[in-house]
Design goal:
Elements (H helix, E strand, L loop, with lengths): L10 E5 L6 H10 L11 E7 L5 E7 L3 H4 L9 E9 L6 H12 L9 E6 L9 H7 L10 E5 L8 H15 L1
Parallel strand pairs: 1-3, 1-4, 4-5, 5-6
Antiparallel strand pairs: 2-3
Family: Belongs to the small GTPase superfamily. Arf family.
Protein name: ADP-ribosylation factor-like protein 11
GO molecular function: GTP binding; GTPase activity; metal ion binding
Length: 174
Amino acid sequence: MGQTDSSVSPQVVLMGLDLAGKSTLLARLLTGKVVETSPTVGFNVGSLELDKKTSLTVWDVGGQKSMRANWRYYLDDCKALVFVVDSSDPARLPEAQKVLKKVLSEEKLRGVPLMVLANKKDLANSMNIREISNQLDLQSHDDRLWEIQACSALKGLGLLQAFMSISKLIKKSN
């Protein structure tokens, strides 16, 4: 029996700029493999089983500029927002910061915990989480639970830990 009904599995929405690595990250989590991905048009969705009792439904929403206007349609029943940034691309952090602030201002996300994943930490030029946290102005979001963690979708580093933390954040916020 042991299977959890997917309707009770909390919805987690994966957002971020295009090329941040969201689809690679989701594929790696679900299959354990590195999968060639192309830019997401619309969304990918999968059920992630963390342990016997805990699973999350993870929505990976396309990050290209043309897609961002539709992001709010994925926020119904969202229990945690996972915002993925490319930690090796400092030039795009101001854009990421604006996009994050805008999505967090959505009424549906009031009080919803935030996990920022600093992806591509396997690259030599990647920024550390303190630099990214400052660039994204995370301290200003004192009205919600938030965490930032470094990870590498390509190498599979830090992914499971991050999603275990997300599960804990959801439990704390309920």
